[in-house]
Amino acid sequence: MNKISSFFAIAFFISAGVNAAETVDTHQQAAMAHEMMDNSNAPAHQKMVQAHQAQAHNSQTTKTVAPSFSQMDEHEKAMVVHESMNNGHASSHQQQAEKHRQQIPTQG
User: Fold this and answer.
1) The pLDDT of residue 106 is above 80
2) pLDDT tens for residues 51-105?
3) How far apart are the two ends of the chain, measured CA to CA in Å?
4) DSSP 3-state helix, strand, coil percentages of the chain (rounded to 5)?
5) How many separate helices (H) and strands (E) can be counted in the chain?
């Protein structure tokens, strides 16, 4: 992906997780992400869109409301930032995100 589409993909995932978590479920978000790709007309993306749409319609809705970014604690924010980097899939970012994830207090 070029820099602009990478920026839009990151912005989409952040805004989807922060602003629309209570209205759009995970499969719908994934389907939209595949539809927004530069090569969204590729058969692989089209199959993924169809699979996510089918799962969205067939699954029992157990929506969880994600907290807004401003409501997250410092470790949750750091985890989101590491995973949202252009190279967020890199081992070092994944390791840092996991360390922050372990430090998030569990709610019971």
Assistant:
1) no
2) 878 877 776 555 567 778 888 888 888 888 878 877 777 888 788 888 888 888 7
3) 41
4) 65, 0, 35
5) 5, 0
Place of tokens 């967020």: 88
Q: Which among 49, 8, 4 is positioned nearest to 30, based on CA atoms? A: 49
Q: What pLDDT shows up at residue 64? A: 64
> What is the rounded distance in angstroms from the CA atom of residue 86 to the CA atom of residue 83?
9
Contact in structure between 54 and 46 (CB atoms under 8 Å): no
Nearest Cα to 14, choosing from 82, 75, 63? 82
Does residue 49 surpass a pLDDT of 50? yes
For the beta carbon of residue 7, count every other beta carbon within 10 angstroms: 12
Most distant pair of Cα atoms in the chain: their distance: 44
